[in-house]
Amino acid sequence: MEKLKQRILKDGQVRNGEVLKVDSFLNHQMDIDLLDEIGAEFQRLFQDENITKILTIEASGIAIACMTARHFHVPVVFAKKAKSLNLDGELYTSKVHSFTYDRDYDITVSKKFIQSDDRILIIDDFMANGKAMDGLIDICHQAHAQVAGIGICIEKGFQGGGDRLRKEGYRLESLAIVESMEPGHIVFR
User: Fold this and answer.
1) Staple 155 to which of 12, 61, 162, 188, CB 3.0 to 4.6 Å?
2) Does residue 135 register a pLDDT over 70?
């Protein structure tokens, strides 16, 4: 998506060669018009997949998932990273390793929100090594729901997660794939 790539070039900041900060428009302060265009693009890409639910992980993926769901007219379910008192009933749980925070944590989704007849579109803001996607895919498998697609705003192609998931047979569409980056210089695939 050319508009997203141009915004990354204009406002993205590379830190330590592996961290791309886009917090001024995507995942801290959010450009709602851009997010709406991202949602429309995901709907265009996956329009023939009969999506019944959008699944993401808290917190940065929620806004993008909501804007995408708006175009599909389906609910959003997000995996929670922390146990809370309002999680009741039976839960699907999976372990995820966060590249950003360099730690493992459990994600949970209430079993009442994902069923075996669901066709799930997984949405997230970033993908590095694909570990968050592995956890969300695992939850879909536990529910016997079909992963109809994975939509990523920014994929770090040099970290291999997207290539691995594509080889595993998942339909993965990334709007911007960063091939390499260093301060002041970002190269897209």
Assistant:
1) 162
2) yes
Q: Report whether 20 belongs to an annotated binding site.
A: yes
Fold exhibited by the domain 35-179? Rossmann fold (3.40.50)
* Residue 29 burial (10 A CB sphere; 0-12, 13-18, 19+): exposed
Would you say 131 is a known binding-site residue? yes
Tell me which residue has tokens 């794939």: 177
pLDDT score recorded for residue 110: 94
The reply, when asked if residue 121 is annotated as ligand binding, is no
> What value does the mean pLDDT take over residues 86-101?
81
Sorted by sequence, the CB contacts under 8 Å of residue 52 that are 6+ apart come out as: 74, 117, 118, 119, 120
The reply, when asked if residue 3 is annotated as ligand binding, is no
pTM, two decimals, is 0.94
Output the six-digit token pair for 145.
């729901």
Residue 86 annotated in ligand binding: no
Contacts of 6 (CB under 8 A, 6+ apart): none
